[in-house]
Each structure stands twice: as C-alpha cells, then as structure tokens.
Amino acid sequence: MQRKSFGNMQCPIARSLERVGEWWSILILRDAFYGLTRFDEFQKSLDIAPNMLTRRLNALVEEGLLERHLYCEKPPRSEYRLTQRGRDFRPVLLALLEWGNKHFAPEGASVVLLDASTGKKVEPVLVDGATGKRISEAEHVMAAGPAAGEPIQRRFAGTAPRTAPR
Amino acid sequence: MQRKSFGNMQCPIARSLERVGEWWSILILRDAFYGLTRFDEFQKSLDIAPNMLTRRLNALVEEGLLERHLYCEKPPRSEYRLTQRGRDFRPVLLALLEWGNKHFAPEGASVVLLDASTGKKVEPVLVDGATGKRISEAEHVMAAGPAAGEPIQRRFAGTAPRTAPR
Hints:
Chain A is of the alpha+beta class. In chain A, about 40% of the residues lie in helices and about 15% in strands. The two termini of chain A are about 40 Å apart. At the A-B interface, α1, α2, α6, β3 and β4 of A face α1, α2, α6, β3 and β4 of B. β4 (about 125-130) of chain A pairs antiparallel with β4 (about 125-130) of chain B.
C-alpha cells in the first residue's frame, strides 16, 4: 500500500489497523495463537522472507503485541510470546475466521472453532455483553464517543440515536 | 507490503485478508457502514489519492463486497453499496473498534457502539451462538475442520480436544 500513517486519525479502527501493521502481522499473530514462538517456526509456517519476518516481529514487539524472550544465549535466540494486548486481538482473528469460512470456503471449513470441553463446533457471534442481545446493524449503531473530536462528531451528526449515550 | 498471494492457502483467515485487500479497503468498508456511497465522499473522508481509491473500490466490487450502481448517466457517476458479503464483515470492524478503544485510546473512546433503542453504550463480546458462553482461549480452540487439507491437519495435530468435532 505504501500506507500513510493513520495514527493521527482518532478513529479506533484506523488506530488498530496501524498497530497491527500489515497482513503478515495478522498471520504472525494467528500463528502465535497456534502456539508458534520461534523465528524459524514462523518462517516455515508463513514462507516469508527472513528480513520481512524480522521487520514484522520487531514491529509487533514495539507495538506491545508480542514479547521477546531470550531462550538461548550462545548463539542468541529469542522466542516471541503474545502479550495481553496481543491476546486481546483474538476476537478480530475469530471474526476473520468466521467471515472466511462463510464466504470463501466453497469446499467447506478448513479451520473451525471448537468448544474444548465438548468438541462441538462453535459459531462465534457478537452480542451485547450486558444484555446478551445479538449485535445487528438495525439495533446497534456506531456513534461519537465522549473523547470524539470535531471531525468524528461531524461524521456522526444526525446518525446518532435519539437518546444520548450514558 | 507487496504482498504475495495468500489465496492458495487454505486458512480462512488468510483468505479473508486477501479478499479485503489492504488497510484502505477496511477503511472504505467502515465508511460504507457509516453511509458513504460516492467516490468524492470516500475521498474526502479518507484523504486518499484518487487512483488509489479507484483501485480499492474496483477490487472491493470484484471481490463482491461492494456493488456499483449508476446514479447519473451524464456524466457517468456511480454509487457503491455494501453487498451481503460486505455487510457480513461488520463483526471484524467491531472487533477492531473494541480493540482500538481498549488499547489505543488513552484519551477515551472516540467512537462507540450504541444500542439504538436505549442509547446505551454496548460492549460487543464474542459468545458461542448456541450456548451463549463467552469465547475464551481456555475453553475454545481452533482446530482442523472437515475440509482441512494435510498442511492444516498437521498444524493442529495434537492440539485438538479429545472429543471429535461433530
């Protein structure tokens, strides 16, 4: 893309995208959730050029999504482990998984989410944490939050629900 | 990134990423959910180069996420509207929104999700659609699905829960 920076945008989606970096970063995070920790494991899984992998791992460490741990001093070898911030990215991966299975897997699902205790396939759905109601476009709208600056307030002017957010 | 194609990978996350294209595409989809439909609206919102915007819109139409509608014949002008496939991408955007608000908004949330009928702020959480149980790393694991080829089966060998998926 030769991306311009989204960092000065207030939009939390843009900020998230900037922090994740590039597609490779998302696949690295996916592999970290699969339990991979070492440079050569990621490289083998992703078939990615070493210099690119180094760059993406460094960026993920810098953004606080992965932590580097030295597991061997001579020669120096590091492991990469998910931080809490990295772990909190899991819903994004699961949403991508669902969307991919629904729309781009004509042969059927290759990767699924299972309930570990029952082994049953799970369909992850987004609900309102407080009420359990399914999130839908009709009933749940995005709106300017308390910290919104003027551009974001303008964007949502007229689209907010009648009742003010509390 | 000068991305190599992930299309021949079986992983649904990789396939999703390939279909979305680039960060710009996700921000275009976000704006489409905000109700923008016209070229100049996207351009103004995103401050993106016209040739880049044309390319991203064309790609999103090609991948079936947006539909092009001619709203003016002379001069020819098109609107871009979300398809069902595009609308199904919303959980990914909401997951990115949550993650951004949690980790990259030290000043507070600038964009929030509201219950349109009550105006209350909503925390979207992923649950098992069948049982309502919150999705967690401890209790919900990714595993090879029925259509998994050998590489994906190998990746998950030994990590699957004891009970077979049904």
